[in-house]
Amino acid sequence: MAQLDFLQSLIANASIVVQQTCKDWIAAVQLCFEPLIKNQIVKPSYVQGVIDNTNAHGPYYLICPNLAMPHADSKAGALGDGFSLLTLKEPVYFDTHKVSVLIGFAAKNSEVHLEVALPQIVAIFENQEVVEKCAQAQSVDEIIQIIKAIDYFKYLK
Questions:
Q1: How many angstroms separate the CA atoms of 82 and 42, rounded?
Q2: What is the mean pLDDT of residues 21-47?
Q3: Residue of 65, 120, 121, 129 lying closest to 97 (CA atoms)
Q4: Which tens digits make up the pLDDT trace of 90-130?
Q5: Which of 32, 34, 55, 78 is the most buried (most CB within 10 A)?
Q6: Catalytic positions, please?
Q7: CA 115 to chain centre
């Protein structure tokens, strides 16, 4: 099985962006994926796929209160596997749901999505307090320390 380490992906791709301002969910999704586009993990078409799918099906990637994990099918333009993390000064609305923390995600195949990525995200954010700590974090280093304190491999097979 392919391995993808959440924190190492964030660090390697310099893809943690904190305390930004976005006018709406579309701007937040676009900003969330900028580091993954820059690092050639996704094509711009992947981000458009997320936006198009959200418009067609609603925000299917809301994980828990205040947290979204926007992603699309790999065919939309995933070139590799990776994560990004964006926090917002003020939440944006996905339908009626307020979100301040976005985890951008791309995987070339569904095995990585289901067996590697989602278990790590669940392990990190199953405690709502972690979501709120991330939302309040003022620096990249603060986010890294929050994640380092969690055993996010505990649900991997």
A1: 9
A2: 98
A3: 65
A4: 999 999 999 999 999 999 887 766 677 889 999 999 999 99
A5: 32
A6: 71
A7: 16
Distance CA 131, CA 136 (A): 9
Q: How far apart are CA 141 and CA 139, in angstroms?
A: 5
Alpha carbons 17 and 55: distance in angstroms, whole number: 25
Domains identified in the chain and CATH numbers: 6-148 (3.40.930.10)
Q: How far apart are CA 104 and CA 30, in angstroms?
A: 10
Residues in the chain: 157
Mean pLDDT of 11-29: 98
Distance CA 145, CA 150 (A): 9
| Token pair for 9 | 């992906």
Q: Which residue bears the tokens 């301040």? A: 100
pLDDT at 57: 96
Structure tokens that stand for 54 in this block: 């959200």
CA distance 138 to 13: 19
pLDDT score at 4: 86
